[in-house]
C-alpha cells in the first residue's frame, strides 16, 4: 500500500516507525514530516492544515490510504475531502470530529448518552462566566470550547486563577476563535488516564491505555502543556478495567453519534478521570495522543497498517491489535520557554548515544536541519525519549539514561515522569 501520513510531531514519527515495519507497505510519504520521519519514508513539504494540497498530492501519487496524525485537519474536513476524491482515509468526518473540535458538542453527546462526566456550563460572555465562577468558587476547570493545541484547559486552584483564565481566553486573541466561548466544569478528583480504541459505527476494539503528564513542572506544577511525558500501561488500570471503561464511556457515545447521523470511524482517545465513583470522561480526542502514542506504539507487536486500512473502510471485522507485556516510559524534551515562547535554534546531538541504551528510541517533533545539516530545535516540544523494559521502574530509568545522553543546551524536561504510577504500584 502507498500511504500518506499527515503531521510533523513525535506522534507522527512513532506512527511512521510502526507503519514502516508493515509487509503491506510499498511507499510511505509524510506531510510535512520532520528529520526523524525522513529516514522512514519521503517527507513532503505540505502543511498538515492544507487539505486541498494534501488531497491533490494523494491523487497524483496514487495514495491508497491517508493516515491523519493531528486533529486540526480532521476538524476542518480532511476525511470528507478524501471521500469526495475517492481516497481512503483512516479518520472521522468533519461532523464526527466535532467530538474534539467542540467541548460543548462533547458535553451534549455525553448528556444524551448518559455518560458520566463533570457537571458543566457554557458561556459566550466573559462577565457571565466570571459571575459564575465567583458563585461556584475553586477549584474549577476552564476550557476553551475549540481547538487550542492542548493549551486551552486551565485547572484553576484559586478564584484568581479562574478569573485570569476566563479573561485570557475570552478577551485576548491568544486562542483565537477557540476561546470565544468557554466550558466551565466542576473539578473532578482522581487519577487521569488516556484510553485508546479503534471505532467504526457502534463497534470498538481496545488499543490500550497510557498516563500523560500535562503540566510543565515536576510535581504537576505550572501551566498545562500538550504533554511532557507518559507511561504505559497505567498502574491500577489493567486490561479488564480498560474494557469496562470502553463499555461505560466510549460505546454509548458511538451509539449516540450513529443516532445523530454522524457515525464515528477512526481512533478515539478518551481522557478519563478515575474517581472514587468510578471512571468519568474528561474529553474525547479523535486521534492518537502525543506523547501517549509514543509510549503505546513502542510496545506494539502487531501490524498497524491493516487496522488503519480497515478503519478507512468503516469496518473492524478481523481487526486485532496486541502489545508486549513490557512497560514503557516517554520523556518529552521541550525548548526553554515552553509552553510560552520557546527558544529556537539550539543544536541537538546525542540521539545515537541515547538509542544505544537498551530499549530506548528517540522520536523527533520540533526539529529541523540548518544550512550546515545540523539538527536544531524549531518547536516547543522537540524530542520524546522512550524506553521499554520488563518493569516500569526500569523503563523509566532507561528513558532518563537516554535523556542524559542528549546534548542540547536549551532543553527542559520533567524529572518525575512515572513517579505517581510507581507510588501506586507500591
Automatic annotation (TrEMBL):
InterPro entries: ATP-grasp (IPR011761), ATP_grasp_subdomain_1 (IPR013815), PreATP-grasp_dom_sf (IPR016185), PRibGlycinamid_synth_ATP-grasp (IPR020561), PRibGlycinamide_synth (IPR000115), PRibGlycinamide_synth_C-dom (IPR020560), PRibGlycinamide_synth_C_sf (IPR037123), PRibGlycinamide_synth_CS (IPR020559). Residues 107-313 form the ATP-grasp domain. Pathway: Purine metabolism; IMP biosynthesis via de novo pathway; N(1)-(5-phospho-D-ribosyl)glycinamide from 5-phospho-alpha-D-ribose 1-diphosphate: step 2/2. Its EC number is 6.3.4.13. PROSITE patterns: ATP_GRASP, GARS. Its cofactor is Mn(2+); Mg(2+). It comes from the Bacteria. It is an enzyme of class 6 (ligase). Belongs to the GARS family. This is Phosphoribosylamine--glycine ligase. The lineage of its organism: Bacteria, Pseudomonadati, Pseudomonadota, Alphaproteobacteria, Acetobacterales.
